[in-house]
Write a structure and sequence with these properties.
The complex is a heterodimer. Chain A is 68% helix and 2% strand. Chain A is built from 16 helices and four strands. Chain A has helices at 3-10, 21-47, 54-75, 83-104, 111-131, 142-154, 178-203, 216-235, 239-257, 260-280, 282-292, 296-299, 306-317, 341-374, 378-402, 420-441, and strands spanning 169-171, 174-176, 207-208, 211-212. Chain A is globular, with a radius of gyration of 23 Å. By secondary structure, chain B is an alpha+beta fold. In chain B, the strands form six sheets. In chain B, strands 2-1-7-13-14 form a five-stranded mixed beta sheet, with no helix packed on it. Chain B has a five-stranded antiparallel beta sheet with strand order 9-8-18-17-16. A two-stranded antiparallel ribbon of chain B has the order 3-4. In chain B, strand 3 (82-86) and strand 4 (93-97) form a beta hairpin. The chains are: A mainly alpha, B alpha+beta. At the A-B interface, helix 7, helix 9, helix 13, helix 14 and helix 15 of A face helix 1 and helix 2 of B.
Chain lengths: 450, 505
């Protein structure tokens, strides 16, 4: 039945390639424009006038965006035209929302710092696109990268805990979360290892209870590294990141081996782990309690907890939102600009704005997966898919937490939330995806599969 | 079915397992589905649970919103008696009161911590700007979430009458209610000791301390005695009894002998009713004489002769037993028992036993008599306006009940004027005015050990005027330092001052 399509697939008809760079330029400019409009809306709604820094702010964002676009034009002309505009728009919206929250907390301004980090992020984006001509080079650094990642993860233990979690490295006024960088290195490692060992993982090993277990020799290293990562994170009570690493591992293992048994085992391990941690750690236990009954603390007379405050913010926004600057999400208090920033989006832009935001993420994630599927080398495929999965899982974990869909595990919303390491890391992820999509979409004589 | 990305394709996995194209697509679908789940949950929270969450008591947004703009004002005449000042805190504006204690019984309070009461409470939608009637384009404003500026509430209060009432009450514990009989407009509503509602309008420690002190004060300054407290009305209730007796035909001529015996032993008991003055200690007094000297025996006897049903219905027509008397602030229910034996009825007919009334309802009694038997619904609000002064609602006078026929009302009016001219109410006499009134002194406490309640109810009009009197008043003094506590001595001068204030204006 599929003869014509099979023929079409085996002998693709050559067609003119459209780089879509102009589309990208238009979208980038639109993204900058939306952010500037949002910035102005904050000013108008709070002060009744356009903020004085609007021109400078718009110019800064515009220059960054155009630089990044120019570099793509120059060195990655076939790249997916949606990746950069989405990143610019998300980052711009994040800056607007952080600026808006700054207005409610005059004594701790975060937007200027965030703009600085965004600049650094775009700079790294440019650096990656320029310097990394072929993503396959990363494969060589898989093991050393994993080692660096593990060191990065362990380092915060030497620093004082912040809000109960040892996940920050603080040097003077600067602080960053090494776990953010580690996730890229880990994705690289998984991709490299699985690309080489996928056949062995998929096909060899003994069959026990209908599940074919791979030989320990093959599974051992990857399991060991993964366990080290998750173990460290659990010790540092960074549950969000450990959940992310766990999900990343399971997804990449499944994609590489096509063995759905991994998913079952993964879910089982996750359930056991979650139950164990929830039982042992009072920190986690209270979060599970809050998740199941977010308004329980109110009925118990202890006032609204953060989840309840977050839900209040979402509810107040309703369908259309209060408008930027007109909400009261600052009532959430601590972490309003970071982990809970989505609540401000929900309150001030409403369900409409939230769905638009989710669509952007969904588009970014699906473009990442599409890049992976379109590539021909197993390492690149797995890496692109892994990076896209990181974004998807992270959005789900943090947004699901503040929306009371799943228990809260502190994490940053990609590009939107306050946090330098987060913004920089996400720009690197997008840079890698841009680089790989350029390879995937390049029409020239396709390189032989590695 | 050919498997996408199967063994045949370059990306296919070995031995028929799906390749990365397939598993990657599945994983991508999974990740996108995760985000779809987020959208579904967001819809649940923001659409389906929104209303409930918005109104959760722990959600401060409604309060924040309420104080995000200046609150509309409450006015007496053309003067605003309230205001709003910016705070610089989480709540942008706080309530101020220009003459707080003077009008506290009218305005109530609007506190960021302790909520809203009285007019601040009942008219809150208008004052806070949330009343949809304030909107120019209600539907669009609802969609755009436009907050309307707070509207204003114009009261019916007469500034001079209110001031006279508060001045007259002074440091005594008591209350005054004054009504315009023809319309039911409340001209004065005073309760002492009073308080300053502005002292706890905000959220500071000082506000909390002021509130705590008011709560702990045994004199209950925040109790609105004019509306919310019921007292045995004592002899002022004899106006109701006399009206019922005339309405039922028990008495047809107020100057004719009533046949009331002396002594009058309470039916079914061996206890005789006693009088406060020896003039009353004779049989067969006329109703007029009995009212002039406030004879318990005669009115007790007439109440029993008139019968429970007529007594109950007449009391009800003046506002007794109404649990939903909203002006629009709700007044406490004044009580006249509906099931009593004859001895209880006799005591109730002279305002004792279980009979208890708010000053407001006793003012309705005086006003109903003055208004030729028609009791008007008391109202405290004249009109509601938008911030630009255009009217949202203008209150029209409403008839509460036709309590008496004009003929009976005229007879009761004469009884009351005789009380002021010749009897116990001479302290209420006003030069150049016709005044009708009735005193009351109700015992209280175990074995009457407490300071008696001194009552006076009255109305007044310029002498010779055929019009309905412009003012009717009820005054109660609940606790006074005076040695001679009688309605005529303590309460009547206050009523006179209030009536003079209205007549003079």
């Amino acid at each position: 039945m599929a003869t014509p399509s099979a023929v079409a697939r085996s002998t693709p008809r050559p067609r003119p390639v459209r780089t879509r760079r102009n589309t990208e330029l238009a979208l980038v400019l639109a993204a900058v424009l939306i952010a500037v409009l949002g910035y102005n809306e904050v000013g108008v709604n709070i002060d009744g006038s356009v903020p004085s820094g609007a021109a400078g702010y718009g110019a800064a964002l515009g220059v960054l965006a155009l630089l990044a676009h120019g570099v793509i034009r120059w060195r990655a002309p076939y790249a997916d035209p949606l990746l950069l505009p989405i990143a610019i728009l998300l980052n711009g919206v994040g800056l607007v929302v952080i600026y808006r929250l700054d207005r409610a907390t005059p004594r701790s301004e975060a937007a200027p710092t965030q703009l600085l980090w965004s600049t650094l992020g775009v700079a790294l984006f440019i650096a990656v696109v320029l310097s990394l001509r072929d993503h396959k080079r990363l494969q060589r650094y898989a093991y050393s990268g994993a080692l660096v990642a593990l060191v990065l993860l362990v380092l915060p233990v030497l620093f004082p805990p912040v809000y109960g979690s040892r996940i920050w490295i603080t040097v003077g006024p600067l602080s960053f979360q090494p776990g953010e960088f580690a996730k890229i290195l880990l994705a690289v490692f998984f991709a490299a290892y699985l690309a080489v060992h996928r056949d062995a993982l998929a096909l060899t090993g003994r069959r026990i209870w209908g599940v074919r277990l791979p030989v320990g020799r093959v599974l051992g290293p990857v399991l060991l590294i993964w366990a080290a990562f998750v173990g460290v994170l659990v010790l540092e009570t960074d549950l969000g990141t450990s959940l992310l690493f766990f999900g990343l591992f399971v997804i990449m293992l499944y994609v590489a081996t096509a063995r759905s048994g991994w998913i079952a085992i993964g879910l089982l391990l996750a359930a056991v782990g979650a139950a164990g941690v929830g039982w042992l750690s009072p920190h986690v236990h209270s979060r599970v309690t809050d998740w199941l009954d977010p308004l329980g603390s109110i009925e118990a007379g202890r006032g609204a907890n953060q989840i309840a405050q977050s839900l209040f913010a979402f509810a107040w926004g309703g369908l259309l939102g209060t408008g930027l600057g007109n909400g009261h999400s600052i009532l959430i208090g601590f972490a309003a600009k970071s982990d809970f920033i989505l609540a401000t989006v929900g309150e001030e832009l409403g369900l409409t704005g939230l769905i638009a935001l989710f669509l952007l993420y969904a588009l970014l994630v699906s473009r990442g997966f599409r890049t992976g599927i379109a590539l021909t080398d197993p390492f690149g495929r797995l890496l692109a898919i892994g990076l896209a999965a990181i974004v998807g899982i992270q959005v789900f974990v943090v947004a699901g937490g503040v929306l009371d869909l799943i228990p809260l595990t502190g994490m940053t919303l990609p590009f939107i939330a306050q946090g330098g390491s987060s913004v920089v890391t996400n720009w690197i992820i997008v840079a890698l995806l841009v680089r790989m999509s350029d390879v995937a979409r390049r029409p020239a004589p396709r390189p032989e599969e590695a | 079915m050919p498997r996408r990305g199967g063994a045949g394709s370059p990306a296919g996995g070995p031995q028929g397992l799906p390749g990365i194209s397939t598993t990657g697509r599945r994983a991508g679908t999974f990740c996108v589905l995760l985000i779809v789940a987020l959208a579904a949950q967001a819809t649940r929270v923001q659409v389906f649970q929104a209303k409930e969450l918005d109104h959760n008591p722990a959600n401060q947004r409604l309060t924040v919103e309420r104080y995000s703009q200046p609150r509309g004002n409450i006015l007496v005449g053309h003067d605003t008696v309230t205001g709003s000042v910016p705070t610089g805190g989480r709540y942008d504006y706080r309530r101020t009161y220009t003459d707080g204690p003077l009008y506290a019984a009218v305005t109530g309070y609007s506190s960021q911590t302790y909520g809203n009461t009285q007019l601040e409470g009942t008219e809150d939608d208008v004052l806070s700007g949330t009343d949809p009637r304030l909107a120019g384009w209600a539907l669009w404003d609802a969609i755009a979430r436009k907050q309307n500026p707070g509207g204003d509430v114009y009261t019916t209060i007469d500034k001079a009458a209110q001031q006279a009432a508060m001045k007259g009450l002074g440091s005594q514990k008591g209350a005054v209610a004054a009504i315009e009989p023809a319309t039911g407009r409340i001209l004065a509503l005073a309760s002492t000791p009073s308080y300053d509602p502005g002292s706890f309008a905000g959220t500071s420690a000082a506000d909390q301390q002021a509130w705590d002190e008011l709560q702990a004060d045994t004199n209950q300054p925040m109790l609105n005695r004019a509306l919310r407290q019921i007292y045995p009305p004592g002899s002022t209730f004899k106006v109701v009894t006399a009206a019922a007796a005339l309405a039922a035909g028990t008495v047809t001529d107020i100057d004719a002998p009533t046949g009331a015996p002396y002594p009058y032993v309470l039916p079914g008991t061996t206890t005789p009713l006693v009088n406060d003055t020896p003039v009353c200690n004779r049989p067969n007094l006329s109703l007029d004489t009995a009212m002039i000297y406030s004879c318990n025996t005669v009115l007790g006897y007439l109440g029993v002769r008139t019968g429970l049903d007529t007594m109950v219905s007449t009391a009800r027509d003046f506002g007794f037993n109404d649990a939903k008397l909203d002006i629009p602030v709700r007044a406490a229910r004044s009580n006249f028992d509906t099931e009593m034996n004859e001895s209880q009825l006799a005591l109730s007919s002279i305002g004792q036993f279980d009979t208890a009334a708010t000053p407001l309802v006793m003012a309705m009694v005086a006003a109903g008599v003055a208004n030729n038997g028609t009791v008007m619904y008391p109202q405290l609000v004249d009109r509601l306006t938008r911030s630009d002064g255009t009217a949202v609602q203008v209150m029209e006078p409403r008839t509460y009940r036709q309590a008496l026929t004009p003929a009976v009302a005229a007879q009761v009016q004469r009884l009351m004027t005789d009380v002021v001219e010749k009897g116990t109410g001479t302290n209420a006499r006003i030069r150049g005015a016709t005044v009708g009134g009735k005193t009351g002194t109700a015992q209280q406490g175990v074995d009457n050990s407490g300071t008696p309640y001194a009552w006076f109810i009255s109305w007044a009009k310029p002498a010779g005027s055929g019009e309905v009197p412009p003012v009717a008043v009820a005054v109660v003094i609940a606790d006074s330092d005076a040695t001679d506590v009688t309605g005529g001595g303590l309460a009547a001068p206050i009523a006179r001052a209030v009536m003079q204030a209205v007549l003079g204006g």
